[in-house]
Design goal:
Elements (H helix, E strand, L loop, with lengths): L3 E8 L2 E8 L4 E5 L10 H8 L4 E5 L8 E2 L8 H15 L4 E6 L1 H12 L4 E7 L9 H21 L1 H11 L23 H16 L4 H8 L4 E7 L6 H13 L4 E3 L9 H13 L2 H7 L1
Parallel strand pairs: 3-4, 3-6, 6-7, 7-8, 8-9
Antiparallel strand pairs: 1-2, 2-4, 2-5
């Protein structure tokens, strides 16, 4: 294991738990769904061995990141502000960020609000419904409404199965040696409940407002619209296309689909490649 340590940061209304792997330029990993620091550890370790200080945190409300008031609103802007404060506590230099799904939406919000804190942002399968044309936006809203209905009527585990269906999860396509995730038990659902009850409504109702979208279109941040090759049939890929169109760029594809765990070695290698091709890397090396 690379150099590893943990930290805790008080922020307004919460306390954030985060983990740091390795040493080198700072790279923040921001996962989607109910992804916490523990679930991001494998990718963090793979990237840390490539010479990065990799930071992965429990989002507010997940695992070790506790809320002062469990009933207080938790919005995309709240998560983005938490990320701003976390980065400010760790570095005074612009950071590299990899964000996936809801994590990408939060990271893009941060880049719009605090572009000075971000050098390169890889936005993988972004949950940016606000950027979609009307027909694709309607499809995304219908999918998320169906997921919310299953959660309300049947509970977290059936909702997790519905989510796997919606993202076309396919663990038959995986690297040798990769084991499909074990089924969740009833004692392992707190983070999933928080995501489905608190974060999912934010994905459905919130997004980048017109001012933030305009800021991103002109941003100095190097944003890489990205998507899994296996995500081509889901609306997150449409979001990546829409982000690419906004920025006049192409979609950068990654191994696997929406999940980050089916092709861990190839995924980490692709992410290192993308980061090393970024202007931030060129400036650092030049």
């Amino acid at each position: 294991m690379s150099d590893f340590r943990t930290g805790r940061l008080p922020v307004p209304g919460a306390s954030l738990h985060y983990e740091i792997h390795g040493s080198g330029p700072l790279l923040l990993l921001m996962q989607g769904g109910d992804g916490n620091a523990a679930r991001g550890a494998d990718l963090a370790e793979r990237l840390a061995t490539g010479g990065y200080t990799v930071v992965v945190a429990d989002r507010r409300g997940l695992s070790g990141s506790t809320l002062d008031d469990p009933a207080a609103p938790v919005t995309v802007a709240t998560h983005a502000d938490d990320t701003h404060r976390l980065l400010a506590s760790l570095t005074d230099e612009p950071a590299r960020i990899f964000g996936s799904s809801y994590g990408a939406l939060i990271a893009l919000t941060l880049a719009g609000d605090h572009p000075e804190q971000v050098s390169t942002l890889v936005a993988h399968d972004p949950a940016t419904i606000c950027l979609l044309p009307a027909s694709a936006r309607a499809r995304a809203h219908a999918d998320l409404a169906a997921l919310a209905e299953v959660y309300r009527g049947e509970g977290a585990l059936p909702a997790l199965r519905k989510l796997a269906e919606l993202i076309h999860a396919d663990f038959s396509d995986r690297e040798p040696g990769v084991v499909p995730p074990a089924p969740r038990g009833p004692d392992d659902l707190d983070d999933l409940h928080f995501f489905l009850s608190r974060d999912l409504p934010e994905i459905r109702s919130s997004g980048l407002d017109a001012e933030r979208i305009a800021a991103l279109a002109a941003t100095p941040v190097h944003i890489v619209p990205a998507a899994g090759r296996g995500s081509r049939e889901i609306w997150n890929y449409d979001c990546a296309r829409a982000l690419a169109a906004l920025l006049d760029r192409e979609v950068t594809e990654f191994p696997g689909g929406h999940s980050l765990s089916t092709h861990p070695a190839a995924f980490a290698a692709r992410l290192r490649e993308v980061l090393e091709q970024s202007p931030a890397a060129a400036a650092h090396n030049g």
